[in-house]
Amino acid sequence: IQFCTKYQTKMPQKTHSLVVIGAGAPRTGTVSQKVALELLLGQPCYHMGEALGPHNSRRHIPMWIQAVESGLSKSLADEILGNYAACVDYPTASFYKELMQHYPNAKVILSVRDTSSWVESMQSSILKAMHTMERFPRPLKWLLGIGQADKMIDAVFRREFGDNYNLADSEFMARRFEERNDSIRRVVPSERLLEFRVSDGWAPLCQFLNLPVPDKPFPRLNDRKQVERALNIMTAITYVSDALATASCIGLAVWIGRRFLN
């Protein structure tokens, strides 16, 4: 949970329509892009952390499920993204085509990285997070406003990779990652598209957006440590919850035995 909220923009104010649409998949430096775009634009940038964060989760998670099931209309997009000037990461990256139609003046950034390192990163972070989320105590999920988070994430991955997707299948994930990137290159007009690696730094990003280069280093945020820390916390909570549930059952059985069998 800490990972989801650490980089969340707090209480964004109403802004104009989207300026930048991030079409890149997760684990392509999207947290660094989020922070960089917020520095450049002076406005909030939407990220998965926004969808799962405490300010938005109870409203946004059901709306993203609705978008997958019924389509992302302009009114729904405005309702979710009306306070943001840019968006990166899932779930928005899964809807880059719709967002391009809804916001025709927005430019598109396709963030990329080496295929094999992307697969390894997805499996060591997102896959583990999904497995941990499945075991996370449901009452705590609802208390934190993420009761349907696993449903939303699964719906987005089904939309992206098909109903039989398997994040643990390295060959499948590598093939789909490259097919997805190739599709974006074909769909987005070249004058509207920037293919970007976070290692490129400010220069191509600022040139693409016609903005001056900031007088500070490009944010290079290694969020893997945050993911690992969050997973460790969630796993510990799950173990404690399981232990308490087991102890409660044993205690109840002992009480029933003493109460009715003596």
UniProtKB/TrEMBL annotation:
Entry-linked Gene3D superfamilies: P-loop containing nucleotide triphosphate hydrolases (3.40.50.300)
Keyword Transmembrane included in the entry's annotation: yes
Keywords, alphabetical: Membrane, Transmembrane, Transmembrane helix
Matches recorded under SUPFAM superfamilies: P-loop containing nucleoside triphosphate hydrolases (SSF52540)
InterPro entries the record matches: P-loop_NTPase, Sulfotransfer_4
Membrane-crossing residue ranges in chain numbering: 230-256
Name used for this protein in its record: P-loop containing nucleoside triphosphate hydrolase protein
Organism: Macrostomum lignano
